[in-house]
């Protein structure tokens, strides 16, 4: 399918990329928990998220039509952006569109012409554990020639991505000039084909693909834990070797459970 298809009418294939990441941090004291959540709230507020989504829109070759955003109390943010494949003349845009660039809320939604980009954040910690997590969910749904896969490397680099789950699916069909249906308009065997090799080297990756339904799934977990990147307000060099090993193991177990979607080690401890 390398040759460009001559289509009859509009390309109405819907391509959806669901991108989910976890950032993991070791924060032992209640103060460290609060400081970490404050840092996340400032680093990934709706203003920053809006910038990321607008960059994604530009990378995939789309145009922003509308932006909705919200910051939450005590933590979290959401943004939605409506986008279009082709530019829209100013006089045709709805005058109520939120395009001022002013950002106060922490939720952001971008709308496209039959396409959209959304992001939601979920900071989390438990008082009985020393691990804090920050989750980001991003959905990029496009209709037409533009593809959300072009933005993958940018999205991975925009966050501290320790665990990544990516789903890509193509829905609907379009027709060529002779009326033949096409249920996908590009070649793909794995989501990993669209991630830079330098990026992939940093992760262990697993694929689950259902080719006949155009459904592709990739899970990735960072393959090297450098404690300097996971300690909050603490220098690992100030800790004893046994303490560093315990923290490393705690971080690794948390990542494995999130990557696997199971309470592997917690259940072992209960038994």
Oligomer: single chain
Q: Report the biggest beta sheet as strand number plus sense, adding barrel if it closes.
A: 9 strands, mixed
Strand tally: 11
According to CATH, the homologous superfamily is S-adenosylmethionine decarboxylase
How many domains make up the 3D coordinates? 1
Query: Kindly, what is the distance between the CA atoms of the first and last residues, rounded to a whole number of angstroms?
Result: 54 Å
Structural class: alpha+beta
CATH class label: Alpha Beta
The secondary-structure element order is EHHEEEEEHEEEHEEHH
Indicate the radius of gyration in whole angstroms.
21 Å
**What is the CATH architecture assignment?**
4-Layer Sandwich
Instruction: Enumerate how many helices there are, as a single number.
Output: 6
| CATH fold descriptor | S-adenosylmethionine decarboxylase
Beta-strand residue percentage: 25-35%
The poorly predicted ranges are 91-97, 99-113
Shape: elongated
The average pLDDT value, as a whole number, equals 82
Helix content bin? 10-25%
């Amino acid at each position: 399918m390398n040759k460009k298809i001559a289509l009859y009418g509009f390309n109405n294939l819907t391509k959806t990329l669901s991108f989910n990441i976890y950032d993991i941090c070791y924060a032992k004291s209640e103060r460290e928990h609060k400081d970490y959540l404050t840092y996340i709230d400032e680093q990934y507020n709706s203003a920053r998220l809006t910038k990321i989504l607008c960059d994604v829109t530009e990378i995939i070759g789309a145009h922003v039509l509308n932006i909705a955003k919200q910051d939450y109390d005590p933590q979290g943010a959401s943004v939605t952006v409506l986008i279009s494949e082709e530019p829209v003349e100013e006089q045709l845009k709805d005058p109520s569109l939120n395009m001022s660039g002013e950002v106060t809320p922490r939720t952001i939604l971008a709308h496209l012409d039959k396409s959209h980009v959304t992001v939601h954040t979920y900071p989390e910690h438990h008082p009985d554990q020393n691990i804090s997590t920050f989750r980001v969910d991003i959905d990029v749904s496009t209709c037409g020639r533009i593809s959300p896969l072009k933005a993958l490397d940018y999205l991975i680099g925009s966050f501290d991505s320790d665990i990544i789950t990516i789903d890509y699916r193509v829905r609907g069909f379009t027709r060529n000039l002779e009326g033949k249906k096409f249920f996908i308009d590009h070649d793909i065997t794995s989501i990993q084909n669209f991630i830079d090799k330098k990026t992939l080297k940093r992760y262990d990756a697993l694929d689950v693909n259902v080719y006949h339904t155009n459904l592709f799934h990739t899970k990735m977990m960072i393959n090297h834990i450098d404690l300097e990147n996971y300690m909050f307000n603490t220098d690992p060099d100030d800790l004893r070797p046994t303490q560093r090993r315990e923290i490393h193991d705690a971080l690794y177990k948390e990542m494995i459970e999130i990557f696997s979607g199971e309470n592997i080690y917690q259940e072992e401890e209960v038994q």
